[in-house]
Design goal:
Elements: H1 8-20, E1 23-24, H2 25-36, H3 40-52, E2 56-59, E3 62-65, H4 69-85, H5 89-97, H6 104-117
Antiparallel strand pairs: 1-3, 2-3
Helix pairs in contact: 1-2
């Protein structure tokens, strides 16, 4: 599994890129100033670092993601289960749900997901 770990600030920037892509880097820096309070050098530093890691490209002042939001979500959720619950999805779900009760609709949706995932 490829490493798509993003720190909070990186995820916030990628979230904006996923929303706006393809986006001009100058426009992106303006949006980052408005939404995140980042100055232009901060945005460009983050773009450079994420580009070096192969997560996005900034070519001809146009920024596009090279990894999708869903890929990042899958990586991060699998990492949580591996790191915190010894790879056990049942242990994770037990801890995640805690005292929370599922609605019938949520239970039906989860059941459908589980049935579809069975090999």
């Amino acid at each position: 599994m490829q490493d798509y770990k993003l720190f909070d600030a990186e995820y916030r920037l990628m979230d904006i890129i996923w929303e706006l892509e393809p986006v001009n880097s100058t426009q992106l820096s303006r949006v980052c100033l408005e939404r995140l309070g980042w100055k232009k050098p901060t945005t460009y530093t983050m773009l450079r670092k994420l580009g070096e890691r192969g997560l996005l490209k900034n070519e001809n002042a146009t920024v596009t993601a090279l990894v999708g939001r869903e890929q990042v979500r899958q990586y991060e959720s699998q990492a949580v289960v591996e790191r915190g619950f010894e790879g056990s999805l049942p242990l994770f779900l037990t801890a995640f749900l805690g005292q929370h009760k599922l609605t019938r609709e949520e239970a039906a949706e989860l059941t459908k997901i589980i049935v579809e995932a069975i090999e």
